[in-house]
């Protein structure tokens, strides 16, 4: 028999993990002091911490930003990769016998009024392997630079609105009484030209030499005029849209960057819609 000490009421309580009450743990978190089982332990500078304390510390940690306000994630440009993957998948789907994707998604001024989704879906289709390869290569080179700098949501808005701007450019410059009203347009060129314009403004913003990007834009514009089958109107519309939006993103004051970025995105989108409405109502 053992003698019970004064004040002792029973068997000492065994410490268990708060997240896993069925697991005994004598290891405690260095921050909150609660028991932490092996599944909830995270290495710390001294000892271990529980997952709850680690999450709380990460939530309070200041978000690292690029000079242009993008979140410094240090990972791959997932938006760029997703767009490229989607374009490749749709290109392969176009080659599946019996799967009639192209006629429902291409842009044509005569059809887009009744089916406005064509303004954006056409940017994810391509007429051939070389067309796809050139656009995706340009998208990868420029997107891997712009996406980390601007952040994901601004880069995505820039790409999508530039793509729509390319279709709007085709619409505005097409003759309702001529064959151009029934011309079909596909490709990401309009969106890519919007990204080219954004690179120009980024370089200008930091006092860098813009000669190479200007020459690149000029050469591609020239090819659009001398090579048959290239919609230079889409290049022009995408470049103008991208330039306006990129200027707002790049030159916005740091303390109002998010607000002005949202306002500029909404304003450019509204302007594109207004141009489309006016164009169709005056036909």
State the CATH topology of the largest domain. Answer: Rhomboid-like fold
Mean pLDDT: 87
Structural class: mainly alpha
Largest sheet: 2 strands, antiparallel
Query: What's the number of helices?
Result: 11
CATH structural class of the largest domain: Mainly Alpha
Radius of gyration: 28 Å
User: Would you count the extended β strands for me?
Assistant: 2
Count of distinct structural domains? 2
User: What's the CATH architecture name of the largest domain?
Assistant: Up-down Bundle
Shape: elongated
Order of helices and strands: EEHHHHHHHHHHH
Strand content: under 5%
Main location: membrane
Domain Peptidase S54 rhomboid: 115-250
GO molecular function: serine-type endopeptidase activity
Keywords: Hydrolase, Membrane, Protease, Transmembrane, Transmembrane helix
Question: How would you summarize what this structure contains?
Answer:
With 283 residues, this protein is mainly α. The protein is built from eleven helices and two strands; from the N terminus they run E-E-H-H-H-H-H-H-H-H-H-H-H. The protein has helices at residues 51-60, 78-94, 102-105, 109-112, 118-121, 129-150, 152-173, 189-205, 211-226, 232-251, 257-281, and strands spanning 41-43, 48-50.
């Amino acid at each position: 028999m053992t003698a019970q000490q004064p004040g002792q009421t029973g068997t000492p309580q065994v410490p268990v993990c708060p997240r896993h009450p069925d697991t005994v743990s004598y290891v405690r978190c260095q921050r909150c002091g609660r028991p932490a089982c092996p599944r909830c332990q995270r290495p710390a500078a001294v000892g271990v911490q529980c997952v709850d304390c680690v999450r709380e510390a990460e939530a309070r940690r200041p978000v690292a930003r690029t000079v242009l306000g993008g979140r410094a994630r240090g990972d791959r440009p997932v938006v760029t990769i997703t767009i490229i993957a989607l374009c490749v998948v749709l290109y392969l789907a176009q080659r599946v016998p019996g799967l009639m994707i192209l006629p429902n998604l291409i842009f044509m001024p005569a059809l887009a009024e009744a089916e406005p989704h064509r303004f954006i879906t056409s940017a994810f289709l391509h007429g051939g392997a070389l067309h796809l390869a050139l656009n995706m290569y340009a998208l990868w080179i420029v997107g891997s630079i712009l996406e980390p700098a601007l952040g994901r949501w601004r880069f995505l808005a820039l790409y999508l609105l530039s793509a729509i701007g390319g279709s709007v450019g085709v619409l505005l410059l097409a003759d309702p009484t001529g064959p151009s009203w029934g011309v079909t347009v596909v490709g990401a060129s309009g969106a890519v030209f919007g990204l080219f314009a954004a690179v120009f403004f980024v370089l200008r913003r930091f006092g860098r030499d813009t000669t190479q990007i200007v020459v690149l834009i000029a050469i591609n514009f020239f090819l659009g005029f001398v090579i048959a089958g290239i919609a230079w109107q889409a290049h022009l519309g995408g470049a103008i849209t991208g330039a306006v939006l990129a200027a707002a993103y790049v030159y916005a004051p740091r303390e109002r960057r998010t607000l002005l970025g949202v306002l500029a995105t909404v304003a450019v989108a509204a302007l594109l819609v207004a141009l489309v409405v006016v164009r169709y109502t005056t036909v």
